Description:
Elements: E1 7-10, H1 25-41, H2 46-51, E2 58-65, E3 74-85, E4 88-96, E5 102-111, H3 122-125, H4 127-136
Antiparallel strand pairs: 1-3, 2-5, 3-4, 4-5
Amino acid sequence: MQExxxxxxxxxxxxxDKMGITHHSNYIRWMEEARVDFLAQIGxxxxxxxxxxxxxxxVGITCEFRHPTTFADRIAIRASVSEFRNVSMAFAYExxxxxxxxxxxxxxxxxxxxxxxxxxxxxxxxPDVFEAFSRLAAPETE
Length: 142
C-alpha cells in the first residue's frame, strides 16, 4: 500500500476571529486542501479525473470540533478514503497540532457525476480509477 504523507497547514492570522481562535469555516477549506493533496499523491488529482469526465461534488459533511487552534499553529491533516462505492466515496480527516492534540475530525461524502450531472459508473467506465480507489478503502463495497 502506498504511503500517503499528511498535509500540513499553518493557521494564518486572517483565519482567526476577534478572540484569536480559528474561525470554524476554515476547517472545511483545510479538508479540501488535504483532499486535493491526497488525490495528487495517489496519482488521481482532480484535473486528471475531470479530464476523464469524472466530477465529485461534496454532498455531505459531518464534523467534530475537539480543540481550538490559533494563529501560527501547524496542523497536520490525515486524509483517507473511508468508504468507496461505484457512484460515491467518503473521505475521513483527522487534524492534529504538533503536540499530537486532535483538534478536528470529519467525514466528507462525495458523489461521482459525469459532466452532464448524471451518476458516473466508475467500475464500468473507468476500471483503473475503480481499482485505485478500491485499494484505498476497506472494505470494498459496490
